[in-house]
Amino acid sequence: MTDPRPVCTEKTQDIIKTLRSNAQVEAALELAVKQQEKRIADQIILTETPAPPFHEEERAKVLLGMFKQYGLTDVKQDAIGNVIGRRKGTGSGPTLVVGAHIDTVFPAGTDCKVHRDGDVYAAPGISDDAAGLASMLQVIRCLNENNIETVGDIVFVGTLGEEGNGDLRGCKALFKEKNDYDGMIAIDSANVHRILRGAVGCKRFRIIFEGPGGHSLHKFGIVGSAIHGLSRAIVRVDELKVPTDPK
């Protein structure tokens, strides 16, 4: 049997234990279990709404409606297309962002119909990251239905461009604009047993290789083809020794 405890530090486990000692929080977690079918229903709707790279508009529109339905305020799309809604706090506490990405890796035209076999639901993108979006909605429901009031605001966000050449464009734009955000929790895929604290680096570089060689006939035998330089660079990168912890 899989250990249900999250893989995280003792400090984080202590924080979780403290939170669960609150009766309202524990009731909210129990409600999440009871509303499993509702979460799955939301997940299916989102999964079957296409969101191919750089064309997330249709799913973003559906999520926007769900944010309004679930009672968030100031629901909107920013200039780049992120879907944003706010759950107001009671005072002047820190503002927390809870986000999940809207886009999938699958190209336009992919059949995203969800198929069920017993308790197993399968479809392209149902885990990454329709699971995150549905879980985010579940958090909103559980907070609302258990009358949990937070001191600070919680800003729920569906971000664009997480996959591939999207280069985290939605998340970067979110924090580039003037904001009051103090921290963020990102929900990605279906693995609820792992908590990563900190950040994952994402830097992309465009490197251009040029050389006198190239054409297989009239440049034959000339050392200096850009392909040769690129190949050597790839080998050198492959030989880099990197730490395994942190990954």
Query: What is the helix tally?
Result: 7
Q: Could you give the order of the helices and strands?
A: HHHHEEEEEHEHEH
Rounded mean pLDDT is 90
Terminus-to-terminus distance: 26 Å
Sheet with the most strands, sense and barrel status = 5 strands, mixed
What is the number of strand segments?
Answer: 7
Q: What overall form do the CA principal axes indicate?
A: elongated
Summarize the structure in short.
With 247 residues, the protein is of the alpha/beta class. Helix content is 34%, strand content 14%.
Question: What does the model show?
Answer:
- With 247 residues, this protein is α/β, with parallel strands linked by helices.
- It folds into two domains: 177 residues, 3-Layer(aba) Sandwich (Aminopeptidase); 43 residues, no CATH class.
- Helices cover 34% and strands 14% of the residues.
- The protein has seven helices and seven strands; from the N terminus they run H-H-H-H-E-E-E-E-E-H-E-H-E-H.
- The strands form two sheets. A five-stranded mixed β-sheet has the order 1-2-6-3-7, sandwiched between helices. Strands 4-5 form a two-stranded antiparallel sheet.
- Helix 2 crosses helix 5 and helix 3 packs antiparallel against helix 5.
- It is elongated.
Any descriptors?
7 helices; 5-stranded mixed sheet; two-stranded antiparallel sheet; about 15% strand; elongated
SSE layout and pairings?
Blueprint lengths: L9 H11 L2 H12 L1 H12 L9 H13 L3 E5 L5 E5 L7 E7 L13 E3 L2 E3 L7 H16 L8 E6 L9 H8 L4 E6 L39 H13 L9
Helix pairs in contact: 2-5, 3-5
